[in-house]
Design brief:
The chain is α/β, with parallel strands linked by helices and 388 residues long. The protein contains 13 helices and 13 strands. The protein has a seven-stranded mixed sheet, sandwiched between helices. Strands 1-12 form a two-stranded parallel sheet. The chain has a two-stranded antiparallel ribbon with strand order 6-7. Helix 10 runs parallel beside helix 12, helix 10 runs antiparallel to helix 13 and helix 11 crosses helix 12. The structure holds pyridoxal-5'-phosphate (PLP).
Length: 388
């Protein structure tokens, strides 16, 4: 391997660039997780995460990737043979459906074209038609990371309420938490799923559930097998700042630092920064003439941008070239979009000049790969950043 000077640009939509402050915080002697010092760390993390999910209710933290937190949301609230309703918004929604089926749930999927968010009107129709209330839960991915499409969760909530249906609302915010405004409590979500390696600026390895009161009630009747992901044991230990088994102590040091950084910047400013950098990216894409994956402007994601390459070109080749020449990783096309669309991650610890470098890498890559495109994408983005 030859040495590559300068920083690697990790512009995939998670894991994201981990800031030095977080890396330094993780670089700490591992302590006794039954000690008083640990309880302070545990409490800081458990309480701090409530403000990130915008809830006063409990948040639990698992030593797992986001996928583990998906599983926890399902196995703690549902029972074998229960019916759940899901939206086919893209690759991650599809994987969550597959998991639900593996766990013994019956999943009804509202089909989608991978270019739109969850449709509240279709949801209201389905729930209204379910007069006997056989559907136990609705699963929605807030920010579909494979397509760069964000769903309107308050509208989803209104659709459930309008149909007077008691189904639980389970929402995946793995790639939107601490990037795009999200309010677990105000929006009436029952379980929200998160992960550490995207907006939270940490390495992979922590999974989160924010849990509402109705979900706690449901967990008392749920009979799907669970042990490692059982909320009850976790909540009991968490009450004193502890965990029922060895937690990811050093990642929690990182989390405490990341929470501190988010508090210093202020969540509303964090959301504004993501909106601004996302809009600058879209200006660049428009100048290049590359087609965005989402079809509805209101659903454009502020965490990432997914762009089609023209027919006859392969996004994998473009990404390989950019990695080789410029030491930058971009997100692959996933599932149905493999080969057709690449993704630019602009979430987490990310600034205007990092964006300028990222877009410059894409623009030079397009040129070197011989992909027909308009000139001036970087200029359009910089102009927006200067003016807006
Ligand atoms: C990354 C991601 C996941 C999967 O999380 P892992 O940490 O890889 O298990 C699930 N859903 C969404 C929306 C994601 O972005």
């Amino acid at each position: 391997m030859t040495y590559r000077p300068g920083r690697h640009f990790l512009q995939i939509p998670g894991p994201t660039n981990v800031p030095d402050r977080v890396l330094r915080a993780i670089d700490h002697a591992t302590i006794d997780h039954r000690s008083g010092d640990f309880a302070e760390l545990g409490r800081a993390c458990l309480d701090g995460m409530k403000s990130i999910f915008q809830t006063l209710g409990p948040v639990v933290i698992f030593p797992s990737s986001g996928t583990g937190a998906w599983e926890a949301a399902l196995v703690n609230t549902l029972s074998a043979g229960d019916k759940v309703l899901a939206f086919e918004t893209g690759h991650f929604a599809t994987l969550w459906v597959k998991m639900a089926r593996n766990l013994g749930l019956i999943v009804d999927v509202i089909p989608g074209d991978w270019r739109h968010g969850a449709d509240p009107a279709r949801l209201e129709e389905r729930l209204t038609a379910d007069a006997s209330h056989e559907i136990n839960a609705v699963m929605v991915v807030h920010n579909e990371t494979s397509t760069g499409t964000t769903s309107d969760i308050p509208a989803v909530r209104r659709a459930i309420d309008a149909s007077r249906h008691p189904a639980l609302l389970l929402v995946d915010t793995i790639s939107s938490l601490a990037c795009i405004d999200y309010r677990h409590q105000e929006w009436g979500v029952d379980v929200t799923v998160g992960g550490s390696q995207k907006g939270l600026m940490l390495p992979p390895g922590l999974g989160f559930n924010a849990i509402g009161a109705k979900a706690i009630e449901a967990s008392k009747k749920s009979n799907l097998p669970k042990s490692f992901f059982q909320w009850a044991d976790m909540l009991e230990a968490n009450a004193k700042g502890f965990f029922p088994y060895t937690p990811s102590t050093n990642l929690l040091y990182g989390l405490r630092e990341a929470l501190q950084m988010l508090e210093e910047e202020g969540l509303p400013n964090v959301f504004r920064r993501h909106t601004r950098l996302a809009e600058a990216t879209r200006r660049a894409a428009r100048a290049w003439g590359l087609e965005m994956v989402p079809l509805v402007c209101a659903e454009y994601s502020n965490s990432l941008t997914a762009l089609f390459v023209p027919a006859g070109f392969n996004e994998a080749a473009l990404r390989a070239l950019i990695l080789e020449r410029f030491n930058m990783s971009l997100g692959a096309g996933l599932g149905k979009l493999a080969g057709r669309a690449f993704r630019i991650g602009h979430l987490g610890d990310f600034s205007e000049l990092m964006l300028a470098g990222t877009l410059a890498g894409v623009e030079m890559g397009l040129e070197l790969a011989g992909i027909p495109h308009g000139k001036g994408g970087v200029d359009a983005a910089l102009q927006y950043l200067v003016e807006a």
